[in-house]
TrEMBL record:
NCBIfam families: tyr_nico_aTase. It comes from Brassica napus. SUPFAM superfamilies: PLP-dependent transferases. Belongs to the class-I pyridoxal-phosphate-dependent aminotransferase family. Keywords: Pyridoxal phosphate. Residues 115-425 form the Aminotransferase class I/classII large domain. This is Aminotransferase class I/classII large domain-containing protein.
């Protein structure tokens, strides 16, 4: 499938009819015993269910709906991987230089966790030590580890109604019940504290917050986070704070780490260099135990984390050795340049969406590499939900947006702004989604799109 000028983008390969036939025959052979007997093994169905709510799974389905004739360039605004675009390649060059320097000088930092602690301590009143840091293969392993630590009969965790889907997938796979609390889009996407208390019970063990929030793009204030901490203390639960976007802020609200409130409630901070330094494939991250009262040790949480990491691979040794240089020597202007580009893209996208009545963005993002919009079905014709909308858009216009169902919220859409400005201009230029007014009602033209050209 042609990507036009965006030839550096990864697009999943299409499943062919031949692939489907092979899969069908293989399934029949398994059921019939294949070699004459009955096979006593089969794949884990839990993996399929967990993958069905994953971002990769949904994106693959969307790309399969794109045209194969090569006449239209695919516009992948469902991805959030800025590194593939030239305008976002400032930080990675310096990160690579630090790695080469590490190899050249045999720079062996045996205490990489200390560098992470120092990096985080600049914002914390209760200083972290090396023993409080656990290195992980990106933030993803941190999420997986914490879900596994909390997995026990009848336990449940609280996730926001819009949440990074990997939390959902791991919880399904590890048989941890998920309960969703609401966010308030009209109040800067703050956490609805009343909804948290309403869904929590004696089996609730933790709540997950994302700050800055992915995908909403808001940055929580000190005042709001303190209320969250006090409520969690009342409920007797820990807070897992996903802070991978802390270096990707371009709005007015400053970043406040949840670890500031560790004297009120124990906090596990998840982080990585993937988003801030634009190196998502490098897979090096951390879990930080903000816990001056040693609650995590007395409850066995730290011991459980150590056991789980002992049966998991470690992050790349070379990257661990280079991480102190990356954290300590990266200058602020690298982040400022990246964030300025994102801010300009957000301004353009936010203004353009005002001209599309069926897509309502309640708040301009202040962080992250995407924005979310509410899909107003009452203004659409022959569209059943957000998945239907995105599938038809991909099939007819090769424009890939991500349905809100992936993040747990139906009839919302996530649009990536971490792309070249020219791609956004293409989306809102030659292939803008036109809405026509008929009988005082806007009707969707997906299915009968008019090209500006």
């Amino acid at each position: 499938v042609t990507m036009g000028q965006y030839t550096n983008l990864f697009v999943p390969s299409f499943e062919t009819d031949q692939d489907e036939e092979v899969e069908r025959k293989t399934e029949m052979q398994t059921l019939n015993g294949g070699g004459g007997g009955v096979w006593r093994f089969k794949g884990n169905k839990a993996a399929k269910e967990a993958a069905s709510v994953s971002m990769k799974g949904i994106l693959s389905r969307l790309f399969e709906n794109c045209s194969r004739d090569g006449k239209k360039t695919i516009l992948p605004l469902g991805h959030c991987d800025p590194i593939v675009y030239p305008c976002f390649k400032t930080s990675i060059v310096h990160c690579m230089l630090y790695i080469f320097e590490t190899i050249h000088h045999l720079y062996c930092y045996l205490y990489t966790p200390r560098a992470v602690a120092n990096y985080l301590n600049s914002d914390l009143p209760h200083k972290l030590k090396s023993d409080d840091i656990f290195m992980t293969i990106g933030c993803c392993q941190g999420i997986e580890t914490m879900i596994q630590v909390l997995s026990s009969p009848k336990s449940n965790i609280l996730l926001s109604s819009l949440v990074y889907p990997l939390y959902h997938s791991y919880a399904i796979h590890d048989l941890v019940e998920i309960r969703k609390y609401e966010l308030l889009p009209d109040q800067d996407w703050e956490i609805d504290l009343q909804s948290v208390e309403a869904i929590a019970d004696h089996n609730t063990v933790a709540m997950v917050i994302c700050n800055p929030h992915n995908p909403c793009g808001n940055v929580y204030t000190y005042h709001h986070l303190k209320k969250v901490a006090e409520m969690a203390r009342k409920l007797g639960i820990m807070v897992i704070s996903d802070e991978v976007f802390k270096e990707t802020i371009y709005g007015k609200n400053p970043f406040v780490p949840m670890g500031i409130f560790a004297s009120i409630i124990p906090v596990v901070t998840l982080g990585s260099i993937s988003k801030g330094w634009l190196v998502p494939g490098w897979r090096i991250g951390w879990m930080a135990m903000n816990d001056p009262s040693n609650v995590f040790k007395t409850t066995g949480v730290v011991e459980s984390i150590k056991h789980l990491l002992n049966i998991s691979p470690d992050p790349s040794t070379i990257l661990q050795f280079a991480l102190p240089n990356i954290l300590e020597k990266t200058k602020k202007d690298y982040f400022e340049k990246k964030n300025l580009t994102l801010s300009q893209n957000v301004d353009m996208m936010f203004d353009a969406l005002k001209e599309i009545p069926c897509l309502v963005c309640p708040k301009k993002p202040e962080s992250c590499t995407s924005l979310v919009t509410k899909l107003d079905l009452s203004l659409l014709e022959d569209i059943t939900d957000d998945v239907d909308f995105c599938m038809k858009l991909a099939r007819e216009e090769n424009l890939v947006l991500l349905p809100g169902e992936v993040f747990g919220k139906n009839n919302w859409v996530r649009i990536s702004i971490g792309v070249e400005r020219s791609m956004l201009q293409d989306v809102f230029g030659e292939r803008e989604i036109y809405l026509r007014e008929s009988d005082d009602k806007y009707k969707n033209c997906v299915g009968n799109v008019v090209n500006a050209s």
